[in-house]
Write a structure and sequence with these properties.
The protein is mainly α and about 180 residues long. The chain has helices spanning about 1-10, 20-25, 35-50, 75-85, 95-105, 110-130, 140-180, and strands spanning about 15, 55-60, 65-70. A 3-stranded antiparallel sheet has the order 1-3-2. This is PadR family transcriptional regulator.
């Protein structure tokens, strides 16, 4: 299950509580999971039972105690075995928006304009997150580079969609102009 490996990967860069894991997973849009509490804690119980993580209780004066999880050597071996053996997946192209656009008529240009606005907002948001290096593990330069490139992949995807939407809109406007010339 992907969430288990995501948790192992995050714990490899440092010990965290379940709440800390949730915050990071919610913010990192390139991770394939949204940060549902129940899923995190179920996964942590499984990982504990399998000996892939261990925990300790951290007592705090300013609030309730919390469990801090860390990856075990077996957890590290399992994570790296998965990373080495799992085949990469191609991007997903089945999008509701493309179906809407396929069957749109006069509203197609307006749909594209709305889509462009959403893309620009996401692009700006993720550019800011990249600038702040949110969630980056800071263990070494190689790892920081990898995380920077993960964000760049996301930015490039949004930019590519924006370029495509603009090209599609131009083509639709041209068809509308050609139709009105006749």
């Amino acid at each position: 299950m992907t969430i288990n490996y995501t948790i192992l990967g995050l714990l490899e860069s440092g010990d965290r509580s379940g709440y800390d894991l949730k915050k990071v997973m919610q913010e990192l849009d390139f991770l394939p999971w949204s940060g549902n509490n129940n899923q995190i804690y179920k996964a942590l119980v499984f990982l504990l039972e399998e000996g892939l993580v261990e925990n300790r209780t951290a007592h705090r004066d300013d609030g309730p105690s919390k469990k801090i999880y860390s990856i075990t050597q077996l957890g590290k071996e399992t994570l790296h075995s998965w990373a080495k053996e799992t085949q990469p997946q191609l991007p997903e192209y089945k999008k509701l928006f493309l179906a809407q656009l396929a069957f749109a008529e006069s509203e197609a240009v307006e749909l594209l304009e709305t889509y462009e606005i959403l893309l620009k907002e996401q692009l700006a948001y993720h550019e800011e997150k990249l600038k702040r290096q949110f969630g980056f593990p800071k263990r070494n330069e190689r790892e920081s580079y990898i995380w920077q490139m993960l964000y760049q992949n996301l930015l490039d995807s949004y930019q590519c969609e924006l370029t495509w939407a603009d090209k599609m809109k131009e083509g639709l406007v041209k068809f509308h102009e050609d139709k009105s010339d006749k």
